[in-house]
Amino acid sequence: MHEHHHENGHEHTHTHSHQETKNVLNRLSRAMGHLEAVRRMVEEGRDCAEVLVQLAAVKSALNNTGKVILKDHISHCIVEAVEKDDFQKLEELNHAIDSFIK
Asked: Where is this region: Disordered (predicted)?
């Protein structure tokens, strides 16, 4: 269980049950390892083009991880929110999508 604090002062607590937690954690671990490899490339003075290609791969991995989280959230939390007429959850989803796609 955890709490959400919103800019409008609203806060609530709830428990998430996600199907993709292990998948997300694995993806994040791989992205972190890849980013660490990019850092080493920079330290070693590797070619800028190579570094940028690898950095783009890290960005793509993080974006894909975000998509997995978003799909899982829609499939579980949002379906449940709609069933319970919890419009706050839908507002939170809109805010999260806006933040993610910036």
From this structure: 1-22
Please provide the DSSP assignment of 45-85 as one string: T--HHHHHHHHHHHHHHHHHHHHHHHHHHIIIIIHHHHHTT
37 in a structural domain: yes
Question: Which residue reads 């709609």 in tokens?
Answer: 82
- The whole-angstrom separation of Cα 7 and Cα 98 is 15
The structure tokens 């999260």 sit at 96
Name the β-bridge partners of 4.
12
Whether the Cβ atoms of residue 72 and residue 20 lie closer than 8 Å to each other: yes
**In total, how many domains does the chain have?**
1
Read off the pTM.
Answer: 0.72
18 within 8 A of 76, measured Cβ to Cβ: yes
Residue 17 token pair = 């049950």
- What is the domain range of residue 58? 17-100
Span 33-80, pLDDT tens digits: 999 999 999 999 999 999 999 999 999 999 999 999 988 888 887 888
